[in-house]
Design brief:
The chain contains eight helices and seven strands. The protein is α/β, with parallel strands linked by helices. The chain has one domain: Vaccinia Virus protein VP39 (Rossmann fold), CATH 3.40.50.150. Helix 3 packs parallel to helix 4, helix 6 runs parallel beside helix 7 and helix 7 runs parallel beside helix 8.
């Protein structure tokens, strides 16, 4: 089935996703530096992120988990030229690659990459920081509950929160899987259920070139 899923993703990308030299350059540089591309979002997933930003006319984006900045490029391309992205990466090697790809892209939007533990960086942000319109969480899964609560401090009514990799090939419903990453995702679901700050939330499972996984999405009340 994996081959079929990958072939369908390739078909979708060849018919609906325009080629972009910046995105191609980012993937090539990532591969040339010896990093696996499976850590980045698929192109059709990137387009979904772009469309959500476009539909909601977002200007300020917060991203947790930069890796090679491929998803960052998708987020930035959807913003107006005066748009702003704060992207946070915990691994020095990933941050260096991400910054290199950001510099190579030369996009007009202001992309700020901060290196360190996402929770520490979020806690250090000024309390009066301008809220973000779109928040993309794609970092270490065991800390998703903490990230969700911290990100809500920098959200406004109508902010969209998008959390990636929340199905994990069905492991979330396997009671024998008690890995910290899986337990973190389960706690994230419990937090999202009837959270006083969330207007509505859902999750979708997906299959494709990245295997069987999915995403959760919420709108801030």
């Amino acid at each position: 089935m994996q081959q079929l899923w990958s072939d369908i993703d390739a078909y979708i990308e060849s018919t609906l996703i325009p080629e972009d030299p910046i995105l191609i350059q980012t993937l090539k540089n990532t591969e040339d530096k010896g990093f696996p591309d499976h850590l980045a979002v698929a192109a059709n997933q990137g387009m979904l992120l772009q469309m959500l930003i476009q539909m909601n006319q977002c200007k300020r984006v917060l991203e947790l988990g930069t890796f090679a900045a491929y998803s960052t490029m998708w987020l930035a391309r959807a913003l107006p030229e005066d748009g702003y992205i704060l992207t946070i990466e915990g691994r020095d090697t990933h941050a260096a690659l991400g910054q290199e790809n950001i510099d190579r892209a030369g996009l007009p939007q202001h992309i700020e990459l901060q290196v360190g533990r996402a929770a520490d960086i979020l806690k250090a942000l000024p309390t009066d920081v301008e809220p973000f319109d779109f928040i993309f969480i794609d970092a270490d899964k065991q800390n998703y509950p903490e990230y969700l609560e911290l990100c809500l401090k920098y959200a406004r009514s109508g902010t969209i929160i998008f959390l990636d990799n929340v199905i994990r090939a069905g492991d979330i419903i396997n009671p024998e899987n008690v890995k910290p990453s899986i337990e973190g995702i389960r706690e994230m679901y419990r937090l999202m259920q009837n959270h006083p700050r969330l207007l509505s939330s859902t999750a979708l499972q997906t299959v494709g070139s990245k295997g069987h996984d999915g995403f959760a999405m919420a709108i801030v009340k």
